[in-house]
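Slide 14.
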Amino acid sequence: MPANRSAAKRGLALIAALPLLTLAACGYGSDSDSKDEGTTKVAAGAEKIDGLDSVKIGYFGNLTHATALVGNQKGFFQKELGATKAEYAIFNAGPSEIEALNSGSIDIGWIGPSPSINGYTKSKGTNLRIIGGSASGGVKLVVNPDKIKSLKDVKGKKIATPQLGNTQDVALLNWVSEQGWKVDAESGKGDVSVVRTDNKVTPDAYKNGSIDGAWVPEPTASKLVAAGGKVLLDEADLWPDKKFVITNIIVSQKFLKAHPAVVEAVLKGSVETNKWINANPDEAKASANAQLKVDSGAELPADVLDPAWKSIQVLNDPLASTLNTEAEHAVAAGLLEKPDLDGIYDLTLLNKVLKAEGESTVDDAGLGAK
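Slide 15: predicted structure.
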């Protein structure tokens, strides 16, 4: 069997062995912390939507999930849901959130492209739909400036990514290939040594010299900068218009069919949250950090929070074409067989909300539900 085909099959075997590949931007473990209700109480006299008592919303304690953090902390979702209570579950990894969606433990979730793709293809298109966008950007190549002074110096160095086959891992492998360098995707060995390292320990690995740099999401990238690292490359610079999906909104297909009015209310809350974040960036940054403290017990220091926040753009557009490109990069790296993503998007309700708000509608890049 040719080496590249063998690597692809081994990579696919890895995907089959795991429920899903972890999304790096959310790669901080595998447990969830359920919250009984949002920060804001149900307004007096409010009515339930569709008679539903509650909607269960999942997200991660990460700045790349700023819409969910702020929407919870400021009560935007609860306002739109009336007396249907917004209940929250905080996750630390993509697989656990997809499993929760499949089991009905959550109904709607903020999550990244890799677990969305893997969850959809693993279920043969039956478990989820992407119903909206949430964030772009927030991924950087941060290096030790004493060892790496230019992009060409990356060759021969040890660069960390959060996990084999996750979004940032695939992005680094694709960039390495574009430089004309060779790396075995599965082992990480080659012209660049790709070291798969959990985001929680990457800053320590950098400090002790185990790695020379890392292709990582925020806030890990800014933690490395605070430890003396230098941003050598912002991934946004590699994408058209400097935009690429890092977080989108998914829903259980079963819940979408049974309760479209509730899903629409959550999407309206998301659109209102994004509008408020973009109009009030400093207050929104503080709000997100306050919710991080509630969810994780710790807030981010200013030298990490400020640069990390600046590199993330909240938006309603799911940037569907970039999700398809990310899947193509995974296929080219030999970590994924070509997926059938037809039907992964259903942007009907989001576009209804956007039209009502007088905002531009968004496109599914031909991958919408038929």
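Speaker note: The chain is about 40% helix and 20% strand.
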